Structure formats: C-alpha cells, structure tokens
Amino acid sequence: MSRALLALAACVAALLLGGCGGGDQGASTGSTTQQPTAANTPPPSRQDTQVEPREEKGKQGNKQGNKGGSTAAKGEGPQKQGNTSSKKHLELARIPAISSAPVAGSKAPAPGVKTVKGGDNSVQEYGTEADESARRQAAIALAAYLNARAEEDWGAACALLAKKPMEQLERLQGAAAKQGKELGGCAQTMALLREGQAQAIEQAKIAEVLSFRGEGDISGDPSYLIFTAPPSQTLFSMPMYLQGGAWKVGLARPSELPVG
After folding, report:
1. Domain that holds residue 133
2. Which of 72, 73, 99, 217 is most buried, most CB within 10 Å of its CB?
3. Quick check: is 57 in a domain?
4. Distance between CA 146 and CA 197 in Å, rounded?
C-alpha cells in the first residue's frame, strides 16, 4: 500500500474512531434540534451491559476474511446477512442502566455529567435533553453495535452504522481502489481497522447512560449519547443519527469526554 493510501487510511480511521478530537464532537450548542417530548414510559430496569457470546456466532457471515462465500451458498447477499445479524444484536442487547434524572427539554447538562469550567462542554450542553424513551432506544442501538464489534461480527456492526461513517469508509475504499488495493466491503474494511478484541469487549461494558442531547433533526445533525464505562467510570459520548425511525451509530468507537 502506497504512502498516500496509508495516510488516507490513517486519516479516515481517525475520523471513524473519533481520535481527532474534532468532527462531530465539536458540535455547536446553537445547532437547531427537535424539541423532545416528555417521557411517557416508566424508567426501564437498570442492568449492566455485558458482551454475551451466543451459540449462533459461528453461523454469522461477514466476519474477517469472509467475503460472502457462506452467504452466497444460501442465496443471501452481504447486506441482507448483515441486517439479519444486526437485528439479532438489537433483540438480544441488554439494556444498560439509564438515569431517570435528566429533565426532557433542559438545556443544562444532565445530573452526573461532568463539565470543564471554562472549557469545551459543547457535547454536554448540546441542544436540549431528549426524553427517556429516546435515551433508551439510542442506548439499545449503541449496546447492540458495541456487542457486534466485541464479537467481531462486522456485518452486524456495519448495518448499525449511520450514513456518515459509511460514507467515510466508502471514500477510503475508493481511494484504495485507485491505488490498486481492494479493501472489500464495509465488513472487510472494518475488520482491517479493528482494535484488539479485549479492548472492544471492555468498550462494550456501558455502566450507565446519563444523558441524550438533542433528538436529531431534518438537517441530519447528530444527537449525543453520554454515558460512563470502564475504566473507572470514564465519561464517553457517541454521536447518534436518526435514520428511518431508528438510531444509528456515528463513530466506530465511543469518544472520551474531557472533564476536569
């Protein structure tokens, strides 16, 4: 792979992994978002999100190095297989603990969400607080995605990615093709950009969802799910996009929020 392609791959990987410290994380608090409605559902039970390998894991397609051989035998394309697998992750994802303290419509940071005095709190103060039902749905989508990554079920992970990171992957694939390097589809590219499985498993252990800022709007702006996870109750955020009535993940992995 040429130096130019390696540089592009590093840049796109940084964007996908949220390692640049910018991008969606620098959202303006003045962005227009939908005003969330009051929650009409009772608080869900508080459970810890854990990765639970399943028996059917070995049957899932789109793993690293799988370019559709097993799915082609069944007459299913990679996209269909990924969507089926992602649905299983959504159905089996355990709901993480979700704080009932935030007030829907509030502009102030949610209780328990740390901020930096005089620093960048654009995510913690972004838009307004969504209702508890939206927090729950977004948390389920994120838990399903993180579990798919931890199990290296790249087809399912791709099906849970939002349009923006998918477009970034496609740009990387296009640039690689011009250099004579075939990266394959989303699943194969995600496998190439993967981190260690132990780290992915650790990232999937959401301790508590504290806040969900904004609720998506017609301009395509993200909302931000803010939560704690190992190590030591670290504060993380994940941009989420509302697409076709379902929440999709906006980065390959959560971003740690700078706090004082």
Report:
1. 3-34+71-256
2. 99
3. no
4. 11
Q: What is the pLDDT of residues 28-79, one digit of tens each?
A: 333 333 333 333 333 333 333 344 433 333 334 333 333 333 332 333 444 5
Residue 59 domain-assigned? Answer: no
Residue 64 inside a domain? The answer is no
Distance between CA atoms of residues 111 and 139, nearest Å: 17
Paired tokens of 140: 């389920």
Strands 208-213 and 255-256: unpaired
Sign, CA dihedral 46-121-217-221, equals negative
pTM beyond 0.85, yes or no: no
Helices within the chain (DSSP H only): 3-17, 69-73, 78-92, 132-150, 154-159, 163-178, 186-192, 197-203
Residue-wise pLDDT for 207-247, tens only, equals: 999 999 986 655 678 999 999 998 888 999 999 999 988 99
Residue 225 in tokens:
């799910």
